[in-house]
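User: Run a structure prediction on this.
Assistant: Running it now.
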Amino acid sequence: MKKLLLVAALVLPSMAAHADEGMYTFNNAPAKAIGEKYGFSPDKAWLDHVQLSSVRLARGCSGSFVSKDGLVLTNHHCMRGCVEQLSTAQENLMAKGFTAKDPAAERKCPDVEVNQLVEITSVTDRITKATDGKTGKDFADALRGVQAAIQKECSTGADIRCDVVSLYQGGQYDLYKYRRYQDARLVFAPELGVAKFGGDPDNFNFPRYGLDMALLRVYGADGKPIKVDHHLSWAKASAAENDLVFTSGNPGGTDRQLTLAQLSFRRDYVLPRLVAQFSERRGILVAFSRRGPEQQRVAEEKLLRIENTLKVYKGRLDALAGALYAQKQTAEADFRAKVDADPKLKSVAGDAWDGIAKAVQAERALHDRRYMLDLGNGFDSDLFTLARQLVRAADERAKPNEQRLKEYTDAAFPQIEQRLVSSFPIAKDLEVETLGWSLATMRAWLSPDDATVKEALGKDDTFDLAKRLVTGTKLNDVQVRKTLLAGGKAAIEASKDPMILFAKQVDAASRAVRATYEADVDAPEKKFGAALAQARFALEGSAVPPDATFSPRLSYGKVAGWTEPSGKQVPYFTLTSAVFERATGNVPFRLPQSWLDAKPALDGTVHMDFVTTNDIVGGNSGSPIINQKGELVGLAFDGNAHSIGGSYGYDGALNRCIGVDVMAMKQALAKVYKADALVRELTGNDTRAEAR
């Protein structure tokens, strides 16, 4: 994936005029620039409609309301967790798909939270005043405290979620107020065989032929589907080449504004270790899957996630190992020269690069320990995660809101609580494999002589310890979890559950490395990052978008194929007929029987998937692709191989967003799945000839 990427627009904003780069906040959308390039400027009413029609799925994806009765469209791969949780050995919904014939048949997803952004407010001044003059632990404590206070003041009820969002590396803070919905029910999910047709070989590639879509419905506290004032109408035709299109979603994170010190640490240390570790994780899951059909079923969703993440890390490593890094060097040198040449800017940001470099040194010293203990990668087990959440909830919920870990504040805790009190299956044999392997990996990374490793593992074989913990715990029983959660500190202290005891045993060390990271890495990076942001604002203004933060963003672009460096022309769309031509009858190119049966009725000229120049990254999965009329023309589900480096920069000639075409979705619902009621709900009373 050797390629030339443009220098990040934040450093060289003049380049943005030549490419559709940027993931813009809704309160700072570049309407004028869009109008100058495409002849259409979205006004406030258009932006408000798109914002309110869009949603965030709290486990890392995006979506959109597509009917007045709370129907949400997102990707199948965003709902695989729900589909897997609703499946059994007797009814494998991943393999057979699911279509609710009526509302009574819609099935509640155990832990899906849907957020709708309703308001953005600046809180930069308040946070700056609270943290001014502070460093290290004092800065981290002050920042955590003021953020928690702001969020609690905003969160006026269980149906409201408020997040303080850090933008421009700490240079700006906005308060995002969401409507929170925690009753989401599965309405439609196609078979995995067509949702991820082409499997891992086609992932991050194009041409593509997947129907990566799913539908869920949001219910209110009264147990009835909610009514929404804003939803996206489905277009009556596919988008044409060069049409202006928008994506509205929640890109998970980009690092385009990082310094060279931060980028080189990721290139030289973090990413190589992640590639190696995720390769091992993939091997563990593949071996487990080969034990039998049931093992394959319970590991499938996790394996697909691991394979996708592994490709992402490999792509990011390739990007930083290529021409992009040299361009970043040039850009940073130019920026530093401008700061040094201006006495006022130098007084603000002159020492920022050295300050961040020092923080990176501290991060290097902490990385492995933080990755294994605090981030939990040494404990690859759903049961352990539940135990840790119960242990920490008991400790944190007894503290003042401003002193808690951020995920246990009043504003954030309902998301954890929802999972703790929801019933879902846990495959204990898989848990033994992943926990045993991850404990062994933790020992290898931290050394057998590490005090925490010695205390946690003792003299046990890691797989023997994992088996004892997994088979002995009762946390797979939701009633047990509810009792422990309700009982608070006293219940946790009295518990003899082995997984609870194990989570308590490693908690102090995990908390310690987190506190050190917040004081020695996160605090200075935010402090010095804010100084760099001030310098950038002074030099360039605030028209350039901030890095992505898994908060709602708007991107714009056009429907367009591309030319590979080899000279190969890649068209902008694929046809339904080509799905059958590509099918081999073997995984991952095996079509479900429903598609083979429906083939005579399908219009092969209908566009299946298509590509656009929209700037997206992970987290944008499930983003609606919208035309200038505000109609849905597609559903983003992937990027091409060139887009993987989009974490660090954007190349308008090569980076592409891949989406399912609206006409393919209509045709599949009508002709393959005979979901006439859904077609009517999505398109109005007219089922349209092209969807019959």
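Residues 498-540 form the longest helix (43 residues).
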